[in-house]
Amino acid sequence: MKRKTLSFLLILFVLSILSLPNPLKAAPYYEGKVVRIAVAFPPGGGYDRMARILARHLPKHIPGKPTLIVENMPGASGMIGANYVYNMAKPDGLTIGAINRVTPSAQLLKIEGAKFDMLKYSWIGSAAVETSVLAVRADLPYKTFEDVKKAKEPINIGATGPGDTTYNFPILIKQFLGLNLKLTTGYVATADILLATERKEVDGYASAYSSIRPHIARGLLRPVLRSKIPSAGIEKLPAVEDLATDQMGKTILAMYAVSDRVGRPYVAPPGTPADIMNTLRDAFAKVTKDPELKQEADKLMMDVDYIPPEECLKEIRFFLNQPQEIVNEYKKYIKF
Question: Could you tell me which residue, 8 or 298, shows the higher pLDDT?
């Protein structure tokens, strides 16, 4: 009887020990850590604004609730930021790259400064698809694409330079749609082009719809043309691929559309452990559906919608695997 009683008491003791909080239980990996989002553009533009929205809302969706900070690494059409994440950042999940969606062009064209392989990043995915839009000042007489097409005087379009949407989109539509556009380059960022537009130094510019939309809403700009990817509110604008008159033009513009489908890409360094990547992907998928983030994004007129890494990589593989004759044609217009 005593033996049974002792056994019973021993079992109760063991169960009580097991029920106590385990001081040796591993804390979440991200607890107490700081995660940097390295943005390949200056402050103030669409990439920067998106990264800062994510930095405010992502922590609650990552176990351990780390602190997220944004660090801008602009330069070389986004290649400085892309190179840093690929070559210098540790693959520990504490650096996330918000890279230029046009960056695959640097790899395709074998640009000397492109020290990365787009297919070897640890892909988180994209925070949104984008629509490229050409917009002109609303005080000008160009109300439609047809008006722009008939322009006798060159329309002065502001741009940063080769390797950016502000340059790539208008240079392609100038070539394949025959528009009378004059590109004025050298602006540091889209915010500088916006200022030049407000001062009437340029007639308009091209950018992602999410970046240009607030300035359409306040009456500064009028959209006249868009890329193939439609966005709510501008579905009826003519799409460039539909207007191209020859097959080469349609093919080159279809290649350009890859950057819009990839949209706002986020990556981690190659070799980041799978469990960490799963955590980050899950957090991104959740945060893009977060009502509080959606509310903030709506106020800024920015669309947010998670695109999984496999979809981004499918588009990039299509882009990088073009026949050489197509690549040769593409490089006539797209520079870095």
Answer: 298
**Same fold: 34-129+263-330 with 132-258:** yes
How much is the CA Rg of the chain, to the nearest whole Å? Answer: 24
pLDDT of amino acid 336 = 76
Distance CA 51, CA 323 (A): 35
How does pLDDT run across 157-205, given as a tens digit for each residue?
A: 999 998 889 999 999 999 999 999 999 999 988 989 999 999 999 999 9
Residue 274: both structure tokens together: 């799978």
Beta-bridged to residue 298, according to DSSP, are none
Answer for the pair 156, 203: CB distance below 8 angstroms, yes or no: yes
CATH number of 132-258: 3.40.190.10
pLDDT at 234: 93
Determine whether 100 is exposed, middle or buried from the number of CB atoms within 10 Å of its CB (0-12, 13-18, 19+).
buried
User: Could you tell me if residue 208 is left (phi over 0), alpha (psi between -120 and 50 degrees) or otherwise beta?
Assistant: beta
Give the pLDDT confidence of 201-228 residue by residue, as tens digits.
999 999 999 889 999 999 999 999 999 9
DSSP string, 203-258: SEEEEEHHHHHHHHHTTSEEEEEE-SS--TT-TTSPBHHHH--SHHHHHHHHHHHH
Q: Under CATH, which number does the domain 34-129+263-330 receive? A: 3.40.190.150
Asked if residue 104 lies in contact with residue 118, where contact means CB atoms within 8 angstroms, the answer is yes
pTM comes to 0.84
- Residue 230 CA to residue 209 CA, distance in Å, equals 10
DSSP 8-state symbol, 289:
T
Give SS3 for 68. Answer: strand
